[in-house]
Amino acid sequence: MAIKADNRFHLISIKKHSKKYACTNMAGIFFLSFIAFTLYLPTVMSQTKAQQYREQREAMVRSQIKARGIKSEAVLEAMRKVPRHLFVPYNMRDYAYADRPLHIGYNQTISQPYIVAYMTEALDVKPGDKILEIGTGSGYQAAVLAEMGMKVYTIEIIPKLAEMAGENLRNNGYENVQVKCGNGYNGWPEEAPFDAIIITAAPESIPQTLIDQLKVGGTMVLPVGPVHSIQTLKKVVKKDNGIKETTLLPVRFVPMIKSYN
């Protein structure tokens, strides 16, 4: 009898332990599932957002750029690839692919996508060309040129913007861009001459110092005109005996300044 009683007691204790173990095991599985879900959800959301941005870039190229006459496949492809939303302030990302300029701080703006594409196409450059950009801003224009295979030297007069642009370009893998903080009117003489020069702020006249740093046969694209009025986008080609200017279209840019305090 003692043996039977002991067996019954032993069996009962095993059943109780099994139930307790099963509950503990289920709780553990639920906890691990919850952790996995919380880790997985941001990844899914991030992938979804990335896909949305890709679709917005494609729509931007199709409706704002190609539809308005930009024909260069190299320019169109670069505009499809460069993540413009990563070159604007976080609170402006929802507007990154809209057909409008955006404020990037320090009274500066990033040009609307069409103007970036238009000026880039007007440069008429090819992979491997050496480009000087005046007015780095957030780094977006430099990124487009770098995406096309150019060697880009870009100057920004506002220290915080130069720092931000450098970070934006590095974070997005654009290693063929050098950023310098300084006065754009001085150019980058130690790296001259350049195949092309693009200026994304408006001087009141074409800076001769920058013409001097342009190769013969090279192209400069820039807005020219006073601060508080409509300016003119110009294409300048350097010749052996001077320059040839072509007026492209009316524009509005921030002024090109010689100092920043």
From TrEMBL:
Catalytic reactions on record: [protein]-L-isoaspartate + S-adenosyl-L-methionine = [protein]-L-isoaspartate alpha-methyl ester + S-adenosyl-L-homocysteine
Major localization listed first in the record, in broad terms: cytoplasm
EC number: 2.1.1.77
Protein name, per record: Protein-L-isoaspartate O-methyltransferase
CDD domains: AdoMet_MTases (cd02440)
Subcellular location per the Swiss-Prot or TrEMBL entry: Cytoplasm
InterPro entries: PCMT, SAM-dependent_MTases_sf
Keyword Membrane appears in the UniProt entry: yes
Gene: pcm
